[in-house]
Amino acid sequence: MSRVGKYPVSVPSGVSVKITGPNLTVSGKLGESQLALRDNVEVTLDGNLVWVKPKDESKHARMMWGTTRALINNMVKGVSEGFTVNLEINGVGYRAAVEGSVLKLQLGYSHDINYPIPADVTMKCEKPTAITISGRDSQRVGQIAAEIRAFRGPEPYKGKGIKYQTETILRKEGKKK
NCBIfam families this protein is in (predicted)? Predict the structure, then answer.
C-alpha cells in the first residue's frame, strides 16, 4: 500500500488541471507543465482534488502509484509557487554575477566560467557570494544547482567552494606540528 499515493493532490485557486488521454497538463501563474501518464495508474479529477489509483495490484503499478502522485504534486506546487535553491560561495576572490543570460563565475581558476542560464530557470546574484536559482520544475532547478556546485565543490579544510545554503561541511583538522 502506497503511503504517498493514497492522499489526493489539492489544486489551489489559480491553477488548472486537464487530463486528456495519456497526458496531464497543469497550468498556473508560472507557466504550464505536462506529464505523460503511465498505463498502470488511473488519474481522476474530482473538483479541486486529483486522485491517483493503481489499475491492478502488480508491483510496478504500486510503485508508479506513489511516484505519479508525487510528480503531480510537484507540478502543482511548481506552477503556483515555484522551487528555489540557494547556493553560497566561500573563498577569497570567489564570486558570481549574472550578465544578461549568462552566469559568470570566478572560482580561482585561470579563467572565468560562463554558465548559460536556461530559459525555464531564473538566476539572481543579490550578493557576489550568493546565487538564487528558481523555476517551476523541481528536478530542473536541482540539476542546474548541482551542475553549478560541481564547478568547485566545497573542500573540507577551509570550506572554500560552492555549497548549498542548507548544507553543512564536515571540516577536517589540517596539519599538526
Answer: L6_bact
Long-range contact pairs involving 164-167 (C-beta distance under 8 Å, separation at least 24): 164/85, 164/86, 164/87, 164/88, 165/86, 165/87, 165/88, 165/130, 166/86
pLDDT score of 1 more than 90: no
Sign of CA dihedral 139, 144, 145, 149: positive
b/e 137-159 (16+ beta carbons within 10 angstroms → b)? bbebbeebbeebbeebebeeeee
CB 135 within 8 A of CB 124: no
Please report the domains of the chain, with CATH numbers, ordered by start residue: 9-80 (3.90.930.12), 83-164 (3.90.930.12)
pLDDT at 143 over 80: yes
pTM metric for this prediction: 0.87
